[in-house]
Every structure is written in C-alpha cells, then in structure tokens.
Amino acid sequence: MQRVTVRRDGVVLSCLEGGAGDQVVVLLHGLAGSAAELVPTAEALLPEHHVIVVDQRGHGYSTRRPRDLSRRAYVEDVVAVVAELTSGAPVTIVGQSMGGHTALLVAAGYPELVRRLVLLEGGVGGRDDRGDYPAELGDFFTSWPVPFADVRHAAEFLGDTPIAEAWLRDLDRRPDGLWPRFEPEVMRTAIAAVAARACWDEWQQVKAPTLLVRGEHGIIPAAEVRRMVSLRPDVEQVVVSGAGHDVHLEERDAWVRILRQFLSR
C-alpha cells in the first residue's frame, strides 16, 4: 500500500491506499489508533478491492493538533477523502470504535456516498452507563511517561495486549525518544464529542445495509445494541467469541472472514 495525502480545511489527512477493484472500502481506526493497525485488514481485501485506510485528524501521520475536533470535522474529512481518491461511486465504510461512530454519521449524512456500513465495536455514542469515559481516557493517555527511552521501556509501561503492541509498533521515533502518534488533550477532546450525545436520529437515517460486529467481551453496552437492532431490524450482527474491544487485533482471522463474507454479497 502507498501513503497518499488529502488536504482539507488546513488539515493534512494521511491515508494508505492500495488495490484497484471496482469496490471501494474505506477503513477508519478508533481513538488513539492509526491506519497502521488496520493494514492487515486492508491487505486481506487486496487486490480485488480498492482499499483506503485513513489516519483520522489528530492521529497517525495526519495533522497532530487540528483546530477543529468536532464530529462534523471528522465526517467531512471522510467525505473529502472519498471525493479525491475514488471515482465517486458509493463506498463501503468500515469503522472501529470512534471510527465506527464517524462512519455511522457519514452514512446518515451522505446516503448517496455509502453503499454498505460496518461498525466494529461501534455504537451511537453518548455516555449512558459508561460514566465520564472521555476524562478517564484522557487521564490514561496523559499518564504515559513519555518520551520512552526505547521500545523495552515502552513495553514495560504499556504491556503486551494487542492494542499495546499496536501502539508500540507505531511509536514516533524522535531524537529525545519514542512518542505516541497523538496528543492526550486531542484524544480527550475528540472522544468528548462522541460522548456528548447519543446519535439515535442519525442511526435511524442510515439506509445502507449495515453489519454490527462486536467482541464477546467488548465495551458497547448490551442495552444500546438491543435498541440499535430494534430500531433497524434489518441490521445484521455478529459476536466474535473471545474478543474484546479490539476485535481486529485480537481475533484478526475471524474478523477478516466476517468482513469478507459481508462484502461478497
């Protein structure tokens, strides 16, 4: 895959792009992630699909401190990427966690742009029974003792979970040490916008065939999923046994199989 850039509203959006098929699949990572963690998913769809993996604003190689961190800004970024890198035909949008929330809003606001929608451990947002999770996540990212001297020191702090290993692989090497490819305060503000309200109206506006993929031990509340399905009975859902929130990293083969089956219909 090659790295390409799209510029919009003073922000540089870095993307990985590959394949040349007629079907376009846009992949969106979650909070504090990057396109890199979705490369294995993308590669499993090549070469028969044209795949675009976006570093969302504030993440990866995209603009690190964007001025606008609203949900609208993230949605318009995806619209700009699709407009510049595709022929304009409807695309499949696949989003994990916060990326799923972005994908949902794109599908609701631009139905002509979205052929299919896949939410991987993604929901409608809001807080419900999850407490003040933006503050908790912000505090966690702020607690990182950066810069890390080397990968070993980073691993000692972050651990060896699949998401920790993804962060380790993606560390930014600078003269003074290793840094994450995001700023804690940017993450706090970005996820606070997701938590600000539950987008039930937008969920009901989605017309594209939709697949919900959840981890058996994921974080999307069961009550939220039940309401999502009750409001849109046509939605398919799959629960991946043994997986948590980062299904694409924890049970990659199962995730890829489910995604490919959905895309092949």
TrEMBL record:
Cite a single Pfam family from the UniProt record: Abhydrolase_1
Q: What residues does the AB hydrolase-1 domain cover?
A: 24-251
Show the GO MF annotations. Answer: hydrolase activity
InterPro entries, alphabetized: AB_hydrolase_1, AB_hydrolase_fold, Carboxylesterase_BioH
Q: Which UniProt keywords apply?
A: Hydrolase
Its domain of life reads Bacteria
The protein's name is Alpha/beta hydrolase fold
Upper classification of the organism: Bacteria, Bacillati, Actinomycetota, Actinomycetes, Micromonosporales
